[in-house]
Amino acid sequence: MRKLSNERNEQLGELCKALDIAINDMALIDTALTHTSYAHEAKCSPRPQHNERLEFLGDSVLSLMVCTYIYKSFPAMTEGAMTKLRARVVCEQALAQYAHELVLGKYILLGKGEEASGGRSRNSTLADALEALIGAFYIDQGWEETNRIALNLLKTQMDGFALSDVVFDYKTKLQEIVQQNGESVINYSLLAEEGPDHHKIFKMAVCINEQLAGSGEGRSKKEAEQVAARCALQTMGAL
Q: Are 70 and 83 a contacting pair, CB within 8 Å?
């Protein structure tokens, strides 16, 4: 691995500090953030290593971490729903969004052509770099510390997706159970909404035959209804 300049060391140290992680081998992080275009255009000998091997490792490590979290956190979730949730969390678009939040693009080394064509903000480039970074953390820090970093990045998104009807439809499950009892009626109602327009929090209640069965909060009314339905199912012992 190439010797890093003081400037590059400081830049990568800034990223590691933002992630609250102490790295032993900063060159690993440098490799994780080195695009193939940069490595191929380099004039030095030997050429710097690019991030494809670390990306391969990070993809598997991240998938296992996500699967482990889903398995432990959502015991009532079916295998099909677990598969959907994993796919939503580790798809290219989602990974690119996490990378955008870290401003990861500014740390990636790109070739001139890739830079000129907008590679620094390209979803595929950002997603690959994030996976490579996870791979580098795993090599340098091991499972526990890397898992902490990964969950800090992904947990809120995972929990939100788990409550969406794309993954697991608690409202439909509640409807199916209630309908087994004849003519029972389910109603959802808004209890409160708080916060500015760009960051609203809604609180919804679900009533069965006008009796409060559960309540929940979410960033949309639909999400809050799903949380309320899950609460009702838990109270009924159906989860």
A: no
Strand arrangement, sheet containing 186-194:
186-194, 201-208, 211-218
Which of the residues 59, 140, 223, 225 is marked catalytic? 59
Selection from 227, 73, 205, 51 nearest residue 139 by Cα: 51
- Quick: pLDDT tens for 92-128: 988 998 999 889 999 999 999 888 988 888 999 999 9
pTM to 2 decimal places: 0.70
Residue 169 annotated to the active site: no
How many CA within 13 A on the CB side of residue 88? 21
Q: Which of 55, 128, 131, 140 is catalytic?
A: 131
Q: What angle do CA 133, 137, 138 make, to 5 degrees?
A: 115
How many whole angstroms from its chain centre is CA 133? 14
